[in-house]
Amino acid sequence: MPLLTPDRIAVVIPALNEALRIRDVVQGVLRYCPNVILVDDGSDDGTVEAVVDLPIVVLRHPSRLGKGAALRDGFAEALRRGHAGVLTMDGDGQHAAADIPRLLSTGNRYPGWIVIGARLRNRDRQPLHRRLANAFGDWGIAWGTGYQVADSQSGQRLYPADVCRLACAGIPGEHFVFEAQVLMSAAQALGTRCVSVPIAARYNDVHGAPQFRASHFRPLRDLWRITSHIVLQCLRRGGLVRVHRSIRAHPAVIDDPDMHPAEATSADALR
User: Cα separation of 270 and 261, whole Å?
Assistant: First the structure.
């Protein structure tokens, strides 16, 4: 596996009507990575115009196609440019660019794994209904992957190139279902695991202020889409007892490059 360094990865940012925050998000990323691919999913509020002078690649959808399509196009562009991995971040400012080095560090400690920025710090800043929804999502994702994942709903992730290629090959699922399907397809087709890096929950910083838009994620609607999608796949594959045993045998792997004693888990012991 090639060493993941800032110049060898691309940061893909899907965006829909993020004119108020997108410039700060992109400028923050450029401090840590020179390769930024912004995928504008049919915005009509001047999102692209807000970053037109910045040294980034911009892909535009003439109309809204959904987050899945935006990520798929971003992955394809990153692969076309020869990048060894893709780090995804939302365009609303929910993810801190300062965490990019930490995700890369974990990616090099766990080569070939998907790295998830898990909102495990300051969780009281995340609304209770979102925490409950995320916990339910983690439970569902485990049935699709055969292992447990900490914060499977986080959009800040580091994907190896082989997972990006798989994602571009036409795996099922659109919108927010796509991100869940990438984890499941990677586990089933490539044997890929996930490792989570603790990051701060910034939800209230972003969506709590009245001047900014509400989250595009709707817990009831989108978790129903994700869960029904997973359940249908599980029923088609069969072997529910086997999957349940695998889930119990593979707890969530959490790695902290900063080695916070309460959160760090020995990488060697978990491989």
Answer: 16
pLDDT per residue as tens digits for the range 104-157: 999 999 999 999 999 888 766 666 666 777 777 788 889 889 999 999 889 999
- Looking up tokens 């490792």 gives 195
106: three-class secondary structure by DSSP: helix
Residues 6+ apart with CB under 8 A from 33: 6, 7, 9, 10, 11, 87, 100
Helix or strand or coil: residue 149?
Answer: coil
Q: CA–CA distance from 111 to each of 83, 155, 212 (Å)?
A: 15, 20, 37
Residues with Cβ < 8 Å from 151, sequence gap 6 or more?
Answer: 116, 117, 118, 119, 120, 134, 138, 196
Nearest to 164 by CA among 86, 261, 250: 86
Tell me the β-bridge partners of 12.
Answer: 37, 88
Cβ atoms of 11 and 101 within 8 Å: the answer is: no
CA angle (237, 240, 242) in 5-degree steps: 105
According to DSSP, the residues that pair with 52 across neighbouring strands are none
Query: Would you kindly state where each structural domain of the chain is located, as residue ranges?
Result: 9-270
Geometric angle at alpha carbon 37, from 86 and 183, rounded to 5°: 30
CATH topology classification for 9-270: Spore Coat Polysaccharide Biosynthesis Protein SpsA; Chain A (3.90.550)
Q: What's the N-to-C CA distance of the chain in angstroms?
A: 16
The gap from C-alpha 140 to its chain's centroid, in whole angstroms, comes to 16
pTM: 0.83
Question: Which residue type occupies 203?
Answer: Y
